[in-house]
Amino acid sequence: MVRFEHANLVVKEIQPTLDFLLTAFPEWQLRGSGQGKWGTTERHWVHVGDDEYYITLNDSAEGDIREIGGIQPGLAHLGFVVDDLEALVERLWQQGYTIDILGMQHPYRKTVYYTDPAGFQFEFLEYCSDQPEQRNQYGGETGSFKFNVRSLQGESA
Asked: For the chain, what is the domain count?
């Protein structure tokens, strides 16, 4: 068996990304935290998630994160499947986060993208089918991506 367990992100400050993740996933918790050395740099770290999966956040990042819309190497986004996309969007909106990208219309899934305060992009998607051949259907999208969306109704900023 193979399964993805965690992602490890380096941020300038832990708290803004931690707040974003705990807003998106209120069932998650701070699993652990500590201090360590990365090369010659002392840094703090946290594990946030559930008993199965988590994200590690390390502080003391230096420099700029890759441009989300650019073609530089690096992480483009992390994707998460959720049961209730509208509830997630509402929680994030209540805390002042706005949708970066509203995905194209698809018969079997809905997607939204957010960028957290550290500059990492997260995709959240809800499947509208339990059938793998429908969930994993490529093509069939209609419309276009909408950017800087204020709500799921598709109003652009």
From this structure: 2
**Which pTM does this prediction carry?**
0.89
Residue 8's H or E segment, with its range, is strand 6-10
Q: Which domain holds residue 96?
A: 78-149
The whole-angstrom separation of Cα 120 and Cα 56 is 13
CA distance 128 to 108: 5
8 Å CB contact between 121 and 113? yes
For 38-86, give the DSSP string.
ETTEEEEEEEEE-SS-EEEEE----SPPPPTTS--SS---EEEE-S-HH
Residues 54 and 83 in one domain: no
Quick one: how far is CA 11 from the chain centroid?
A: 14
42 with 90, same domain: the answer is no
The pLDDT-based confidence of 109 (bands split at 50, 70, 90) is very high
Query: Which of these, 85, 78, 118, 116, lies nearest to 100 by C-alpha position?
Result: 116
Cα distances (angstroms) measured from residue 81 to each of 35, 85, 123, 129 = 31, 9, 8, 12
CATH of the domain at 87: 3.30.720.110
Residues forming beta bridges with residue 109, ordered by sequence position: 106, 127
Q: Please choose, from the candidates 73, 75, 99, the residue with its C-alpha nearest in 3D space to the C-alpha of residue 11.
A: 75
